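Quick one: structure for this chain?
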Amino acid sequence: MDLNHFHLLVGQTIMYCQVIEHDVKRIYAAMHKGDYYNNLSRVEKWTLGKAVQELKALDFSDGDSYISASDYNFLKQMTEKRNHWCHESYQEFLYNKQFLQSKEYADECRKLKRDNERLSSVCNALEEVRIKAQKQFRNM
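Got it. Here's what it folds into:
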């Protein structure tokens, strides 16, 4: 993978993380009792980790969850993936003058491709859950 494609996939991967984070917060705001917009305002400053934790607790409180336990585990891991792509990925190889030919760069490219594909899939699936939750709980 050339460096421009790497940059593109990093940006896209971070975008998927942001969309997922906002969808988690919107699902929580829809499912939580009270006014949707007040709930959304209250959770907008939450970290992704807190939002996932709070949504999971709310989602499993009635025995009929929208999101599976394994998907919650992935969402929890996603915070680590997002932090890696935002703060660490380039450090793995950038200080090597021949990094494009390095094992470290090849390893990061493989991880990036895998994470990008998985996050794309989760992003699409979570959007469907968000739409379903908003319709059911907000009578949209």
